[in-house]
Prior knowledge:
By secondary structure, the chain is an alpha/beta fold. The protein has two domains: 1-79 and 165-247, Rossmann fold; 88-164, no CATH class. It has ten helices and ten strands. The radius of gyration is 18 Å and the shape is globular.
Amino acid sequence: MAVLQTKELTKQFGELTAVEEVDFQIERGEIVGIIGPNGAGKTTFVNLLTGVLNATVGDIIFGGEPLKNAPVHDRANRGLVRSFQIPQVCDDLTLLENVRSAILSREQRNSSLFSLLLWEDESRSEAIELLNEFGLGERQNLSAEAIPHGDKKILDVCMSVAMEPELLILDEPTSGVATENKHEIMKRLRNYFETTDSAVLFIEHDMELVAEYADRVFAMDQGRKLIDGPPEEVLEDETVKRRIRGEE
Ligand SMILES: Nc1ncnc2c1ncn2[C@@H]1O[C@H](COP(=O)(O)OP(=O)(O)OP(=O)(O)O)[C@@H](O)[C@H]1O
């Protein structure tokens, strides 16, 4: 079943059509990479999904229900979570406190203050378990400002995962990260999501990562869908090679 589906999704900025009649869907358990040249409309598309922008025309169906113009927090509460290009980590908190804050914000959706207090120990062990899964467990008591940029991005992903998303959207999860850490972030993400039936959608410029970690690739150009399919097919497409991979 599709976690999310768009129908003829369109966004205009004045005269410019940044996203044009995009039909897209992502199934439970899928990891989908979005690729496209600069200005293709990838970020605008994702901003429409998360509610940062409202569509000019078209529909977004999430969990079987139309999102219409639901605000960002409402979509996040329903399980449509976005991690940011610049990690939204609080530098003054420890890694453990950062992850617990994500868990607590998830729990605040449904719980009373009283049950949250009872739940104190549970959130702690859950946060430690997540930090361990993402390789940060040994540094749980360091403040976030003390860890390198690449590890902060892992922490950011870990916090997004703590929100228990139905669909996690990542905008260039590995940008600004050293090559060896890029694979570490993607591997940990994939390993984690293999244990859930949640879906992941990530924007990525690094074709090697797309080839290795995406189950499916959605290529955009000039606001439109160019091609949608398995990585081996999309990355070998002649237009993709010319327009996106910069090959003649
Ligand atoms: N708020 C805005 N107002 C006007 N035009 C915008 C706005 N946001 C994006 N655009 C334009 O929409 C088009 C698509 O931009 P977008 O950032 O979505 O592309 P992208 O594929 O994410 O590019 P990149 O890979 O460079 O991040 C571009 O022409 C951009 O200049």
